């Protein structure tokens, strides 16, 4: 077991509810439990809290008393003082029907006074790669050049090609809002892009096109906690692969944060002002490029760390940052009229 001592609860927060579409397959569910879900729950318990998963429809809001909503999770009452909701947006193909419910529920919970580590606006910016790069375009590490392509009914007219004049080939073509390395392809010409957009049309999947940085490009994920860089997850692709994610055979290693990335962190922390997020950078062998923002980036187990010491350490720091930010939120709301009432209180 990890010898790090447990830090006792210091505030009213008792429950962290992760809103996640309930559409995983049996195989995926078992994999995610083993990979990080069970560990997240263990670490939360060490800190005197609970971490639980819920689909958007698990949350019910009684708004019959103006200005004083009652909120329930799986028929259990929760309040802004004892519960926070983790509401990063997920939009993989089998989750598409849940996107609006996730986003709308985030807005409802925020208006009801709950603390959200990922406010709706930040969650949306983090879910679209072009929105991310535009919002954080002043990064001291330059964003990778990107063209965003919609794939609706007129995609066969190739009107998007007006924006491809500055693109170099081969180019990486991938969904604008997925995660886990899914849907990444190499296009060696504009003709290849035509083929990929026609396939993406089948699911109305918006794409981004970016220059390919070359074989062996390494991905560096920086975990940023309370505005400071904590650890880097270095992901190295298999030879000949353009994808470095573990699901595609990439090699995972935790490392100290490179000085150049540590210095850049202050910019991201100032622009985002949330207690935890991940920033992904690509290194082409000569320089770094800013690639993606992951508000709810996975903290995985890695080979060579059988006790999951680093995974636990990052998770513990993340949840502690959530608890501290929640305490500040509750304190700031203390002078305002209560935004909720107990479900047992009479109207």
Tell me the layout of helices and strands:
Elements: E1 15-19, H1 26-46, E2 50-54, E3 59-62, E4 70-73, E5 76-78, E6 83-86, H2 99-111, H3 120-127, H4 129-135, E7 147-149, E8 171-175, E9 185-187, H5 190-200, E10 207-211, E11 218-225, E12 228-236, E13 251-255, H6 259-272, E14 276-283, E15 288-294, H7 309-332
Parallel strand pairs: 1-2, 1-6
Antiparallel strand pairs: 3-4, 4-5, 7-10, 8-9, 8-10, 11-12, 11-14, 12-13, 14-15
Helix pairs in contact: 1-7, 3-4
Write a concise keyword list for the protein shown above.
347 residues; disordered N terminus; 5-stranded antiparallel sheet
Task: Describe what you observe in this structure.
By secondary structure, the chain is an alpha+beta fold. The protein has seven helices and 15 strands. It has helices at residues 26-46, 99-111, 120-127, 129-135, 190-200, 259-272, 309-332; strands at residues 15-19, 50-54, 59-62, 70-73, 76-78, 83-86, 147-149, 171-175, 185-187, 207-211, 218-225, 228-236, 251-255, 276-283, 288-294. The longest helix is centred in the last third of the chain and has 24 residues, at 309-332.
